[in-house]
């Protein structure tokens, strides 16, 4: 077992992008500041995409402008083409992420074109990021199954990863966008990508749709994946996938890792507090469990 | 990975024992029949304990009298002393289970005496079961943590298991009664008990209180545990532990195992149907996720 894993806090972007309740720029900034106070050091803060497609992210520049700087925190912005990258760079993101979708049907709905065609946008972003010396990551959506096509062959995921890596990338995330993976799928698919791209940094993105999200995170960590995405409270979803549910909850993930003596830098009580505050913003209970059950063992009572 | 694991369906007993809504004998019998129709072949059907302590199990004899026979299904009854065993035997259970609790404080609340003192009841049950040639199992509650004492040392769990095994037992279950375990705890504790009692059949009982239940089930299966408890819909709780939540849901567990090509004999669609019916009986949504998310890949559409 590793002594630590890195967590990417995705609640401000993947968590909120599908949220029907309007969330103000100030509230987003407070969420990010609460995540930082809880120990998050890599945060997916927003996306620089068409605001007509994803209205919750229309204030990307305003969010970035309000964030604290020189604090060791990396702010990840999503960009889907050269224009998005230019916006992200001007706004001051410190990392850029691009999403490819492994299956053509879902790629068409999410990215507006079949998978391989969307490599053109990545080529633009990758080239611009290299010029700007900005770290990059690729997320391969539907890496474990597609809501429209069903099973996605392992070879397809490997092919997409290799084609993406041809343009240079610092990290590749396999995303279980619709929450269908089992731990065996996780072990198999990360091993296949790792074998095809030796030395590439791997990251896992799980949704807890069929109750396997935390099991998949455990399997990923045991398989050597060093970076995990999660969201405070387990909020989230996908506007372009039916019945999508939230990311794995940061506090539940960190609880498990703490019990396994795997460090994350995240403070559980602060994470629970941030998730509880978020419930008030969104106006409903979030799916995370630790806040309701309580940390174990409980903090020592002061007599 | 094993090619199959055995599931013990515990919804009729551990699932319902803490239920505030009255559930009739007829409804319990229907639940058991639905579990059988879904493929369950070992079912914890009731307990033969003081009805003043656990009112939901007051109709133990009536439930047993109404069950189908000669169908290859094993009906497990809980008995906590010789008198309970005699009732179970007369009612026609085919297996008897006894619960020990690893921590003294919780044992006092659950069993009315500190752990080691409650071995006397087990000695009675074990002796009577041997005479009756009835298979036995021990469940060690709070094997991963106690709601009153906090951490429970691994050595304590091993000691309790060994003391229980001195009386002869066919199977030992380690129970995470309050849902605090991590997969690392699961691996460590089952290995320790297995090392102390080589060849004993091991069984895992998890509650999904802090979102680690399915991850723990995966870890148990990978560690060679061949029997897992679960409940349809994930219903359940414990009347003597604060903030206890349900067992791991049968359908979510089976979904994961199916995706890993590990057989259980359980039919997912039938299990989802039974859990949905159970929501109507109890009058609220159950915590299982598969029924809401849907089986993946979806059954082929008929054009």
Tally of structural domains of chain A: 1
Helix proportion of chain A: 25-40%
Class of chain A, according to the CATH hierarchy? Alpha Beta
Name of the CATH homologous superfamily of chain A:
Aldolase class I
Largest interface: A-B, 41 and 41 residues
In terms of DSSP E residues, the strand content of chain A is 15-25%
Radius of gyration of chain A: 18 Å
Strand order of the largest sheet of chain A: 1-2-3-4-5-6-7-8
> What would the average pLDDT of chain A be, to the nearest integer?
95
Order of helices and strands of chain A: EHHEHEHEHHEHEHEHEHHH
Estimated structural class of chain A: alpha/beta
Silhouette of chain A: globular
Largest sheet of chain A: 8 strands, parallel, barrel
Question: Which regions of chain A contain 5 or more consecutive residues with pLDDT less than 50?
Answer: none
Quaternary structure type: homodimer
Name given to the CATH architecture of chain A: Alpha-Beta Barrel
CATH fold-level name of chain A: TIM Barrel
Q: What's the number of helices of chain A? A: 12
Q: Terminal Cα separation of chain A, in Å?
A: 37 Å
The total beta strand count of chain A reads 8
């Amino acid at each position: 077992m590793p002594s630590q894993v890195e967590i990417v806090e995705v609640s401000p972007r993947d968590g909120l992008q599908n949220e029907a309740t309007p969330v103000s720029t100030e509230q987003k900034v407070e969420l990010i500041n609460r995540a930082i106070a809880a120990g998050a050091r890599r945060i997916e803060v927003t996306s620089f995409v068409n605001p007509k497609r994803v209205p919750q992210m229309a204030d990307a520049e305003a969010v970035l402008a309000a964030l604290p700087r020189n604090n060791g925190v990396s702010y990840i912005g999503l960009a889907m083409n050269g224009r998005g990258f230019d916006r992200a760079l001007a706004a001051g993101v410190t990392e850029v992420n691009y999403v490819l979708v492994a299956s053509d049907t879902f790629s068409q709905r999410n990215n507006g074109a079949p998978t391989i065609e969307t490599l053109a946008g990545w080529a633009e972003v990758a080239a611009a990021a290299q010029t700007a010396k900005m770290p990059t990551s690729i997320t391969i959506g539907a890496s474990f199954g597609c809501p429209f096509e069903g099973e996605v062959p392992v070879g397809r995921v490997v092919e997409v990863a290799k084609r993406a890596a041809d343009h240079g990338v610092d990290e590749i995330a396999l995303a279980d966008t619709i929450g269908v993976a089992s731990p065996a799928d996780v072990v198999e698919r990360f091993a296949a990508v790792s074998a095809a791209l030796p030395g590439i940094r791997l990251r896992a993105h799980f949704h807890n749709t069929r109750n396997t999200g935390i099991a998949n995170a455990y399997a990923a960590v045991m398989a050597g994946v060093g970076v995990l995405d999660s969201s405070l409270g387990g909020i989230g979803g996908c506007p372009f996938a039916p019945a999508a549910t939230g990311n794995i909850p940061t506090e539940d993930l960190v609880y498990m890792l703490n019990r396994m003596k795997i460090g994350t830098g995240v403070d559980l009580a602060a994470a629970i507090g941030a998730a509880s505050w978020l419930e008030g913003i969104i106006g409903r209970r979030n799916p995370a469990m630790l806040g309701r059950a309580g940390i174990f063992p409980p903090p020592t009572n002061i007599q």
